[in-house]
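Deliverable D2.4 — example input (structure tokens):
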């Protein structure tokens, strides 16, 4: 057999991939009998780990932390990454940070399998992506602890998660208390390739606020598309073309809010005098354009996630739960009291 893999070894020995990984990493959690079966399979198949992988997994000077991101250049992910790096600097534990990007949803599973096979990291931080129970078990069996920075894992002790529904409520409530009743929602498609629930959760909060304040729900005010400034620009243009356009827009992210603002100004209208706009995230850009938004502490989520993973990796075995502060409404210059009859 040419170039046998860890999966070939597992199949030959009649064990799981995680068990093979444990043997390769000299784990004490494998019985002598099972260890011998795996070592025998390794010898008979001629399996060889790469030199790089062996150095990363056995080195004593530095430990490797992998961070998996779907969109490494998006501002919200840059903020999380900055928080992780700040925590590594503060912990002073000689961690090396290894970045992995997942450009297509089905590549996440392949990446996790590769990480387990090569044993290149001591722990993982997985940002936003959802992983299956089988993938969780795979990492657990391989003794690779992980922490999630996710929008949909509230209650999981190994997860740092904001309350997106609450955030959506805060955004819509702010506009309602300013007197707006014709409020549009510009967000991502609820069903998307990455199965991100973010847009749906923030929309749920928007709906809850409308109902509480007795505002009429209008399906033509809900505009969904792919994530990004250009799509938000196009969706906003369609809202402005309605016979009765909205007086306010809740954009599910700050980047989409920028697209909304540009479309409004290109239509010869003013923000906030003619149409108010509120975003979500409070990325650095929002401060420069004086955007009213909902702050979800992105940098802090990365910082807390790295601290939590450090606890899990520590020899003391003491893991202190980390929780984000409540989401905050940040009022700046893109929203104001409604100034027309509605």
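Example output (designed residues):
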């Amino acid at each position: 057999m040419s170039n046998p893999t860890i999966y070939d070894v597992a199949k030959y020995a009649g064990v799981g991939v995680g068990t093979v990984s444990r043997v390769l990493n000299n784990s004490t959690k494998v019985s002598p009998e099972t260890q011998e079966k795996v070592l025998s399979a390794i010898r008979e198949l001629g399996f060889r780990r790469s030199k790089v992988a062996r150095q990363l997994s056995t080195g004593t000077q530095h430990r490797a932390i992998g961070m998996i991101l779907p969109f490494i250049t998006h501002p919200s992910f840059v903020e999380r990454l900055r928080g992780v790096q700040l925590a590594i600097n503060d912990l002073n534990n000689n961690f090396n940070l290894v970045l992995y990007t997942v450009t297509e949803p089905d590549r996440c599973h392949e990446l996790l399998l590769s990480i387990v096979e090569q044993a290149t990291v001591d722990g993982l931080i997985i940002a936003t992506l959802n992983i299956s129970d089988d993938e969780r078990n795979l990492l657990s069996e391989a003794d690779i602890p992980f922490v999630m920075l996710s929008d949909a894992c509230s209650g999981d002790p190994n997860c740092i998660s904001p309350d997106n529904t609450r955030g959506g409520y805060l955004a819509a409530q702010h506009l309602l208390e300013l007197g707006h009743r014709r409020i549009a929602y510009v967000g991502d498609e609820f069903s998307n390739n990455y199965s991100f629930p973010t847009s749906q959760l923030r929309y749920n909060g928007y709906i809850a606020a409308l109902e509480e304040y007795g505002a009429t729900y209008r399906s033509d005010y809900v505009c969904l598309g792919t994530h990004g400034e250009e799509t938000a620009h196009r969706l906003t243009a369609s809202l402005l073309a309605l016979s009765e356009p909205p007086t306010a827009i809740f954009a599910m992210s700050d980047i989409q809010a920028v697209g909304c603002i540009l479309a409004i100004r290109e239509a010869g209208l003013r923000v906030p005098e003619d149409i108010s706009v509120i975003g979500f995230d409070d990325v650095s850009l929002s401060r420069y354009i004086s955007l009213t938004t909902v702050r979800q502490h992105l940098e802090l989520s990365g910082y807390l996630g790295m601290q939590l993973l450090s606890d899990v990796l520590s020899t003391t075995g003491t893991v202190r739960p980390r929780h984000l502060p409540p989401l905050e409404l940040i009022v700046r210059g893109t929203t104001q009291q409604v100034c027309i009859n509605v």
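Residues 1-48 form a domain with the 434 Repressor (Amino-terminal Domain) fold (CATH 1.10.260.40).
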